[in-house]
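To fix ideas, we quote verbatim one protein's residues and fold tokens.
>
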Amino acid sequence: MKNQQPWVPPLSQIPSSLTPIVMMQKKHYGDALYPTRWWGRMPRLFWLVALFVGWLERKKARLAPELRALLMTRVSQQCHCAFCIDANSLRLAERTGTLEKVQAVAHWQGSLLFSDAERAALAYADAMTATPPVITHEQKDAMKRFYNDEQICEMTALVAFQNLSARFNAALDIPSQGLCDSQRKPDA
């Protein structure tokens, strides 16, 4: 872990019931992800959360992988979750093959990198993440222009999931794991 210790300490030993998840994390990231050491206090709930995100990230999802990563990164930023920003920025960089959108997502309204469909989805994610969530008629109309009802429902589930994850991690001060150096400038 990084310098600052969270106010609720991580588990020193992850329950053996989470071994399959830990093995997948080590294969993909080189180590167990930090939140596993907190969620591990509730293995059954953690499995449910993992299955939920696994379903949202399935190969036949209704939303494109890049859009999913974009929305998850934006919600992470809105919730001020250091770990989620790090992990989702890595996912967005992997899916786009560049850091351009990673570096621009915090200021998406002023960036030319995002399509009108992405802008509608980002506005919807911002509105859903606000407390209380306020989705305007204009935002609903924009969403209907670019997405069908099934995609909107799946996007709503994705944004809701990311809010759950980011708010859990942020509340417990789970730090960034250094997975994505999103501050690095692209090669000139």
Observations:
- Residues 149-171 form the longest helix (23 residues).
- Residues 79 and 167 are 6 Å apart (CA to CA).
- The domain at 63-171 is CATH 1.20.1290.10 (AhpD-like).
- Confidence is low (pLDDT under 50) at residues 182-188.
